[in-house]
Design brief:
It is a single chain. The protein has three domains: 180 residues, Rossmann fold, CATH 3.40.50; 93 residues, 3-Layer(aba) Sandwich (Rossmann fold), CATH 3.40.50; 104 residues, 2-Layer Sandwich (GMP Synthetase, Chain A, domain 3), CATH 3.30.300. The longest helix has 22 residues. Strands 4-3-5-6-7-8-9-14-13 form a nine-stranded mixed sheet. Strands 10-11-12-15 form a four-stranded antiparallel sheet. It contains twelve helices and 21 strands. By secondary structure, the chain is of the alpha/beta class. Helix 6 links the parallel strand 3 and strand 4. The protein binds zinc ion. The site of zinc ion has 7 residues, from loops.
Length: 443
């Protein structure tokens, strides 16, 4: 098994010699950077000057737990107050719509140096699955400088891989034609979009081409999609963790495919109890929070991601001493709450529905009321798929089966015929919730 390239990347940055990364030296570097970032934010950001007033410097990184959290709401309401540079030094602003408050958005600001660090991490991460001379097709938006596809393309040039930037998948047959023309070694794209392409390949047995590796990006990756991509293409599938606030990249799987090794040169991660906000010991599930260690434009201190995960105890089989973050269990915005005891997640649905043949897209609508109703609308290629099979799949989820048997939930399914000229949806997947018992959090 190949050790994650993050070890060598960190050793080079820490000017460390020897055969393996010394974790103590990494933790010492992080403590130094945490204090530097706190000093920088206190000096230059009006928001943090006030928020961090009177707090002592850290003697140990565990003392960071005494510092206040930064929320998505802070980014929405405080915006420019978080900046540590003048606006003229900002080279990229990303505006993110939020699901919490209608019409509100958060803006994340990056300098050129911030973006350079993202490219540097992407280059390291991509070397997990691509070698010099190999060809990579990117199905992510990349037309604008600083966008994720643009930065990824630049990172691939640095590791001497050939890059083709397509943009998000729009019309499936058009994207498939481009694939067949270019025959890349590796694909990067949004999980559901690459599944649609793979299902199209399987249905019409289009070409003998197969990718060597696939990297799934921008949305949570259901295991069901990984399973289907491996079945159809026989390729290695890599998952990574990231969000715009992290500077896009946060961590990437190694060849062990058991958790993400993290971008620990640039980010310090913690897991806290989402209700008490207290730090949790290794192995326990809670909310992932992070502090930027090297961000210039808009440093974030203890930023709440809304993602639920844990650190995996023990060493990675790849031989790295770096800790691993387990795959995100769910995002707070992807939980449907009928009552405190009766919840299910979009991921619960994804894990059973994406295993069905020929899926192009799945929409999940929840209506809260009397009765509560879950309506699944599937767009599929397969003639053999019918509503009954979708309902059977849903009833494999114990919570849904229980809710239905107790008359707390009515399950409905419909199949839409697929129009091959209809563009695929482009945004992150989420529940569409109507009715009046809405209890969905997150941003
Ligand atoms: Zn590993």
């Amino acid at each position: 098994m190949v050790r994650t390239p993050l070890d060598a990347w960190m050793m080079a940055k820490l000017a460390m010699t020897g055969s393996s990364l010394q974790i103590d030296a990494l933790r010492k570097y992080q403590l130094t950077r945490l204090n530097a970032v706190i000093a920088q934010a206190r000096t230059a950001s009006p928001f943090y000057r006030q928020r961090l007033a009177g707090l002592p410097d850290l003697r140990d990184s565990s003392e960071l737990a005494a510092y206040p959290l930064t929320s998505a709401g802070d980014l929405i309401t405080q915006g420019l107050q978080l900046l540590c540079v003048s606006q003229s030094q900002i080279s990229r602003v990303v505006t993110l719509a939020t699901s919490g408050t209608e019409g509100m958005s958060k803006k994340i600001y990056f300098t050129a140096a911030d973006q350079e660090l993202t490219i540097d991490f992407f280059a390291c991460g991509m070397s997990s699955l691509v070698e010099a001379g190999e060809r990579v097709l990117i199905f992510l938006s990349g037309e604008r400088p600083g966008s994720v596809g643009y930065l990824l393309a630049e990172s691939l040039r640095r590791i001497k891989a050939e890059c083709m930037l397509y943009g998000l998948v729009d019309i499936v047959p058009r994207a498939v034609s481009y694939l067949c023309e270019t025959k890349p070694d590796c694909l990067v794209g949004v999980p559901v979009q690459l599944l649609a392409i793979a299902n199209f390949f399987e249905r019409w047995q289009i070409d003998s081409w197969r990718p060597k590796a696939v990297l799934l990006s921008t949305d949570r990756v259901p295991d069901s999609i990984i399973t289907r991509l491996k079945q159809i293409w026989g390729c290695e599938v890599f998952d990574h963790y990231g969000m715009t606030e992290m500077g896009l990249g946060g961590g990437i799987e190694c060849s062990a495919h058991h958790g993400y090794h993290l971008r620990e040169m640039d980010l310090f991660f913690e897991i806290i109890d989402e209700h008490t906000e207290q730090p949790l010991p290794e192995g326990q599930y809670g909310e992932v929070i992070f502090t930027t260690l090297t961000r210039e434009g808009m440093p974030l201190i203890r930023y709440r991601t809304g993602d639920i995960a844990r650190f995996i105890p023990g060493a990675c089989p790849c031989g790295s001493g770096l800790r691993r973050l387990e795959k995100i269990k769910t995002r707070k915005s992807q939980i449907a709450v009928l009552s405190p005891e009766h919840t299910f997640t979009l991921n619960d649905l994804d894990e059973v529905l994406f295993l069905l043949p020929g899926i192009i897209d799945v929409a999940a609508k929840v209506h809260l009321g009397e009765p509560n109703c879950l309506n699944i609308i599937v767009t599929a290629l397969s003639d053999s798929l019918d509503e009954k099979k979708i309902l059977q799949a849903l009833r494999q989820i114990p919570m849904l089966a229980l809710l239905e048997s107790e008359n707390h939930l009515c399950l409905k399914a419909a199949i839409l015929p697929w129009d091959r000229n209809t563009p695929l949806p482009q945004g992150k997947r989420c529940f569409k919730i109507t009715g009046n018992k809405i209890l969905v959090g997150g941003a």
